[in-house]
Amino acid sequence: MYGAVFTMPCRKTHEMKCPNCNEDLIWGGDHSYEDYGIDEQEGIVSNSSCPDDNCMVDTVIVYTRIE
Fold first, then answer.
1. How many domains does the chain have?
2. pLDDT tens, residue by residue, 41-50
3. How many CB atoms neighbour CB 25 within 10 A?
């Protein structure tokens, strides 16, 4: 399986699509930037996964900076 990392504006979870097969992603959770070792900025890191077992995308991580 392959992972993907995207930086994009925050969107509602139900609007998030897999970049490979366009299926709706399944939300896995939110974490702070600090949890990911990003101490110089504030933000939310969301992780989602593709429900399609045949898709090559396993996890999508979205970084959203809080300004």
1. 1
2. 888 888 888 9
3. 22
